[in-house]
Design a protein that fits this description.
7 strands, 18% strand, single chain
């Protein structure tokens, strides 16, 4: 597969997360902290260096600071994400130690930046144009006995079709994107209704997942190009080869139907450099 690493050929993630960040308040921050603690398990961030790769809105960099991280470095390829993250941290974490840089994961350099006790990248590396290369680059930034926390799309039989859709959506006009999003939500609502659930309840529960917003995430999903996906056993092999051992994971149920019809969904992983 030929990978496209140029920022101009990526979906405008930053614009989406800038809109989301304008709505961030204490409730979203608390949920972001809970999502980060879930991946950390019993690990403590106090006094540790934390690297947020693909910081987006900056809410999880903020969560790391509020959980005691001594130094947070946030990086993103998208100019809007860099501006948004810096503004969010200055608003909610003034006086704490952080840096926000416009930088691709492929350009990370442990020699220049040092290594980190915790490296975090949720739902990002599969959008870089070279997921496996990005995974290796990110892993190089983890200190000895450090944690690598990340989430990647689970491969499904729908992935080739989603790749086509995402390439189209990322280049589509705003009016076309709005229509596609409206249709997606309509059919998703229909699927929930068929299983005895409601979209309104789903959206309300969604707010409790990592402090995110359903409609911003749908836009992110539909336009998330470049797009790759991977199976958990492939992740395990790659991470073992790089000297990591899995300490916990939260995997999508193999038989979960929405994974096949409405999106790949993300498996979450926590690996320790051994």
């Amino acid at each position: 597969m030929k990978h496209d690493l140029a920022a101009d050929n990526h979906f405008a993630f930053g614009e989406n997360w800038a809109r989301y960040a304008s709505r961030v308040g204490e409730a979203q921050i608390v949920e972001a902290e809970a999502g980060l603690r879930r991946l950390l398990g019993g690990a403590d961030l106090a006094g540790k260096r934390f690297l947020d790769i693909g910081c987006g809105s900056g809410i999880h960099s903020l969560a790391a600071l509020r959980l005691g991280a001594a130094d947070v470095v946030s990086v993103d390829l998208d100019t809007h994400s860099v501006t948004t993250t810096r503004a969010l941290l200055e608003r909610f974490a003034s006086g704490k130690k952080f840096q926000v840089k416009q930088l691709s994961v492929h350009d990370l350099d442990a020699a220049g930046m040092g290594r980190f006790e915790v490296v975090y990248s949720w739902g990002v590396l599969h959008h870089t144009g070279d997921m496996r290369g990005a995974l290796k680059k990110a892993a190089e930034m983890v200190a000895d006995r450090g944690l690598f926390l990340f989430a990647l799309y689970r491969r499904s039989w729908m992935c080739p079709l989603w790749r086509i859709e995402k390439k189209w959506y990322s280049a589509a006009k705003d009016s076309q994107q709005r229509l596609a999003l409206k249709n997606y939500v309509f059919f998703f609502r229909l699927g929930l209704w068929a299983s005895g659930r409601s979209l309104e309840r789903y959206v309300e529960d969604y707010k409790m997942r990592r402090g995110m917003d359903y409609f911003h995430d749908v836009h992110d999903w539909l336009g998330g190009y470049p797009y790759e996906s991977i199976l958990p056993e492939e992740v395990e092999t790659l991470m073992n080869e790089m000297g990591f051992s899995r300490v916990r994971s939260f995997l999508i149920s193999r038989w979960r139907k929405p994974v096949k019809l409405f999106g790949s969904g993300c498996d979450e992983y926590a690996y320790l450099r051994t």
